[in-house]
Amino acid sequence: MRQAHLIKRSLDIVGSTVGLVVLLPILIVIGLAVRLESPGPALHWSSRVGRNNILFLMPKFRSMRIDAPDIATHLLPDAERWITPLGRFLRRHSLDEFPQLWSILRGDMSLVGPRPALHSQADLMALRNQSGVQTLRPGLTGWAQVNGRDELPIPEKARLDAEYLAKQSVVLDLWIIARTATTAFSGRGIRH
Length: 192
Hints:
Shape: globular
Oligomer: single chain
Radius of gyration: 16 Å
Helix content: 40-55%
Number of helices: 7
Largest sheet: 3 strands, antiparallel
Order of helices and strands: HEEHHHEEHEHH
């Protein structure tokens, strides 16, 4: 088991390093575009629940106005009011997630795992704790993301996270990464 964890962490380090180097020009262009479109920083640092329920700050390209409430988008009464036009495009194609490669390199996240919950998502965290999912590093992508993303209700996301915990392997991770690329660029499964 320890060897599998070392292999997974090695893949995370190599993948995030290569991703940051290769995507650097794109990251710069997106960051400048976010700054030009609306006032505020290019990055939003969100408090997220990490491995063993320890909070960490996760970067994303800012896709909402700076005065937006700090809650899950699906809980906002009128989410479209807060999302910027560029932010809508970034979210649809998951480009707002690229800065999380930094969190993977740091060890707060993994390339594949359950998506990091917001600190306010007590329902999701409770279900994950029941099945032991909190022992995993959260991922840039995961089993639930390639099986429905935002379209999934919380209990189904938690069930898929538990399924990933039971089945995790390097082969499954590589398959999820490949499937994520097609899902993210198509924009399927994104509500906002």
